[in-house]
Specification:
Largest sheet: 3 strands, antiparallel
Helix content: 10-25%
Order of helices and strands: HEHEE
Number of strands: 3
Strand order of the largest sheet: 1-2-3
Strand content: 15-25%
Number of helices: 2
Length: 71
Amino acid sequence: LLYPSNASQVIASVEENSPAAQAGLESGDIILAIDEQSFASTQDLIEQIKKMPGVTASVLIDRNGSKTALP
């Protein structure tokens, strides 16, 4: 779940056992890029994710001020 479209790409919550949880995403993480592609808006991010069902992707996040790449 992401915050409203006028906010940054902040993860509001992560469902237990979801692909996001399995990838290591946590509530409060900010998505900076997926497969080295950044996003101008939350809507752009959502549209990209919709195009990737079942695809493994590298996610660059900001967690508590530190950039971290999740495989």
